[in-house]
Amino acid sequence: MSTQNEQPEQANEPLNGAYNPEPNGRNGYHGHQELRQVKDGPAFIAPTPPRYAQIVGWGYHVPSKVITNRDLEQIVDTQDEWIRSRTGIEERHVAGSPQETSATLGIQAARKALDLADIHPNKIDLIICATSSPEHIFPATASLIQDGLGAKNAGAFDLSAACSGFVYGLSMARGHILAGDAEYVLVIGAETLSRIVDWTDRGTCVLFGDGAGAVLVAASDVPGGIMASVLGSDGSGADLLTVPAGGSAMPATLETVSNGSHYIKMDGRAVFRFATRVMAEATTKVLAKAGLTVQDVDLVIPHQANERIIQNSVLKQLQIPSEKVFVNLQKYGNTSTASIPIALCEAIEAGKVKPGDKLVFVGFGAGLTWGACAIEWRTPVEKQEATWWRNTQRQATYQAAAARSMWKRAIRRVYSQVLSTREDEATS
Ligand code: COA
């Protein structure tokens, strides 16, 4: 007689839904166990179908103000030719108005990702905002984005891994989904680096730009998606790229403000050497983890910091041809955590991503940190034009979110006023 743990012979036939006979798929997910029952037979413990983490929505937003290399010639001692030949950058977008912040750029990008996936903000379980230019030490920029989206069922936190942050975020999203803790995770890279760049330092101000990119990662039973990730850190290189002041190690003082310690400081050459090494290494490792070879790769989307870093790493060391490496840094400069999701969106727009393609996202940054993800793309990329009614519904959703947020703030203010009046009365 069968016990609960023994599978009867007919066990391969599921009672409800598809049954994947390979619960330990190539992304290493083991699935949960659940109690099932074969028709007219005893109950047994069977693995649930494996889960996969698929990118189902994507979007980006950059500020409208553009600063070209020629504009920079008016600000610091630099030349268009120097910037182009050393970095590949031609122009960058910067937040021109105080209303443009890491959170507002992130909200715009996130809305586009949700609209494209046609998913209501209520369905999001977790919002991860990777950022190197958060609005505050706390609260998290992710919480401000959660409020702006009206994602009332979502947890939210910021992820600090500098320019590697978006890849780290994808890896976290995959983990949450495969563990069964979340169905939808929004991963955002959002930056206003122009606010922490020293506009008198030609060694750094020519490199960075502002913008945000977002992807919606969803649980799925379709094999593929984010297949593997590799994350790395070497804190012995912490001083090579840093904003020294403003944290607990060097709180803001008159001196830190006057000597520019709140701006980005970088040893460019050392970062360059580190980046060219880890980009190739991380790509090789993540491909091996996903059971792929360099020849299987259809598109690499590297962190968009410097064209020469990309050439010296993925192109030369891994012999990946340039048509399989997406580069758009000429238009945006280095947007840190936002660079990979912005590049992903533009690669999709350019028709360079289609279902079945194997992609690699690879990044590096301050920390020092690095990371890579291997992805088997499964989501159709054709843009579905939303109806007038759907667009109106979406607008109403976001307006309702803004109204709800204002209402909650107002209620909280009135409530605390009433309470403190009562307390005053009680103590007098
Ligand atoms: N315009 C003109 N000249 C500049 C300049 C600029 N914007 N910035 C630096 N220079 C000068 C330097 O002062 C130096 O002059 P010198 O030889 O008279 O001393 C010369 O150019 C060479 O400087 P160097 O720093 O050796 O140039 P480089 O070839 O290493 O390029 C970077 C500099 C910053 C472009 C490059 O090192 C780099 O991209 N590093 C990685 C940075 C990065 O990606 N950071 C973000 C990580 S997420």
Tell me about this structure.
The protein has 428 residues and is an alpha+beta fold. The chain has two domains: 1-50, no CATH class; 53-376, Thiolase/Chalcone synthase (Peroxisomal Thiolase, Chain A, domain 1, 3-Layer(aba) Sandwich), CATH 3.40.47. Helix content is 34%, strand content 20%. β14 and β15 (369-376) form a beta hairpin. The longest helix is centred in the C-terminal third of the chain and has 40 residues, at 388-427. The chain is globular, with a radius of gyration of 24 Å. Bound molecules: coenzyme A. Residues 78-79, 82-83, 86-87, 163, 202-203, 206, 241, 266, 268-269, 271-272, 275, 305-306, 334, 365 line the site of coenzyme A (COA). Coenzyme A is lined by residues 78-79, 82-83, 86-87, 163, 202-203, 206, 241, 266, 268-269, 271-272, 275, 305-306, 334, 365.
Question: Tags for this entry?
Answer:
single chain; 15 strands; four-stranded mixed beta sheet; 2 domains; disordered N terminus; Peroxisomal Thiolase, Chain A, domain 1; 20% strand; alpha+beta; globular; five-stranded mixed beta sheet; 34% helix; 428 residues; binds coenzyme A; 12 helices
